Amino acid sequence: MANIRDIKVRIDSVKSTKQITNAMKMVAASKLRKSQDRILKARPYADFINTMIQTLQFKNKHSEHPLFEENPGDEKKALIVVTSDRGLCGAFNSSIIKEASNYLKENSQVDIICIGKKGDDFFKKHDYNVIKSYINIFNEMDFSISREIAFNIIELFTIKEYDKVEIVYNEFKSVIQQNIILKQILPIVPIEDEDVPLVDYLYEPDDYTIMGELGAKYINVDIWRILLESSASEQGAQMTAMEAATDNATELIATLTLFYNRARQASITKEILEISSGAEALK
Hints:
Elements: H1 4-59, E1 77-82, H2 92-106, E2 110-115, H3 117-125, E3 130-134, H4 143-158, E4 164-174, E5 177-186, H5 207-282
Parallel strand pairs: 1-2, 1-4, 2-3
Antiparallel strand pairs: 4-5
Helix pairs in contact: 1-5, 4-5
């Protein structure tokens, strides 16, 4: 058994770690609430754009815009991988990287666009073709970032650099649950909803221009929503991981305190025995 001083140092060290993990849990909880509020505000706008696109597609089945046009030939793809910039969030990053790695094994001719430092570090280290990286964008979430990402992928798609653009990210469900989503970004496939009323919109200029404008807005908002989902998922995962770490630290402190008391008691008992033995020897 370690001596009393070593155990005391270890207890102090674990207490310091517990304070850090508890503080990180509280910070993650605060950021999570902000992310959830942003998601709730973004959804109505995204849903309405989706409704308008569905309506226009239904009315103009023979007027396809390039953003909606499927390419039946050989597909060269781009995969957007959304991870976090930091660790200490459980399996949040490893799950995404594993899903992306499995996708890359099953698909050839795939270039990677990384959002988040963890994914960027992994895929560059393993010599994948990373064509673009977006690092440290989650500290100050801004819509201009999603607009820049959307503009870049739309440009690559429209000049036929890629036939399909897909994205893999963590969708926020709850603090303890995040779902890994792999979905197609381009060409645009609106979410089908049978309850959507097919309103007879009056619009100008022509339907082709309107489809292009709505398509670009749809991509902007979808990328923004995905970044918000990923940010909320990261904070939820970090909150859960730090709560578990805090609980483990509490248990470890209790165990070390027990060892400390036992060692101290053994030390006192040993001293008493030595004093008694010395007094007995002097008789």
